[in-house]
């Protein structure tokens, strides 16, 4: 792949994943401005959003190196599988933080007697 094609794929990748950086930036601003906001779930969300972007850029870099070294197809395939799984984990981390923050803090859940 030519250098210009690779650079355009990097630009497209960054544009496609910029919402995750915006989400992380909003989380950081909320973390410092709103002291009443729950801290731990917000940190998990920020780490999840940043890691989604980081995994995408790392995947691009690793595939670029594999392309430059003319690696066999099986290595490409295995690398794609690994990064797909890492992408899933980073989205899961973000979703856990989001759900943790939005989960209602109720003591008397229906169906469970309080003693």
What is the strand and helix layout of this fold?
Layout: H1 3-33, H2 39-68, H3 73-102
Helix pairs in contact: 1-2, 2-3
General description of the model:
This protein is mainly alpha-helical and 115 residues long. Helices cover 79% and strands 0% of the residues. The protein is built from three helices and no strands. It has helices at residues 3-33, 39-68, 73-102. Helix 2 (39-68) runs antiparallel to helix 3 (73-102). The protein is elongated, with a radius of gyration of 19 Å. The model has no long low-confidence stretch (mean pLDDT 88).
Q: Give the helix/strand class.
A: mainly alpha
Rg is: 19 Å
Q: pLDDT below 50 for ≥5 consecutive residues: which ranges?
A: none
Q: What characteristic shape results from the CA principal axes?
A: elongated
Please estimate the helix content. over 70%
How much of the sequence lies in strands comes to: under 5%
The termini sit apart by 67 Å
- The SSE order reads HHH
By DSSP, the count of extended strands is: 0
Largest sheet: none
| Helix segment tally | 3
**Overall mean pLDDT score?**
88
Key features of this structure:
115 residues, mainly alpha, 3 helices
Task: Quickly describe the structure.
79% of the residues lie in helices and 0% in strands. It has 115 residues and is mostly helical.
């Amino acid at each position: 792949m030519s250098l210009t094609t690779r650079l355009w794929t990097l630009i497209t990748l960054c544009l496609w994943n910029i919402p995750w950086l915006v989400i992380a930036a909003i989380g950081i601003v909320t973390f410092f401005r709103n002291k009443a906001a729950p801290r731990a779930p917000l940190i998990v969300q920020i780490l999840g959003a940043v890691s989604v972007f980081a995994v995408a850029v790392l995947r691009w870099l690793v595939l670029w190196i594999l392309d430059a070294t003319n690696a066999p197809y099986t290595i490409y395939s295995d690398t794609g599988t690994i990064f797909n799984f890492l992408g899933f984990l980073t989205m899961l981390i973000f979703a856990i933080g989001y759900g943790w923050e939005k989960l209602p803090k109720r003591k008397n859940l229906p169906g469970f007697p309080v003693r």
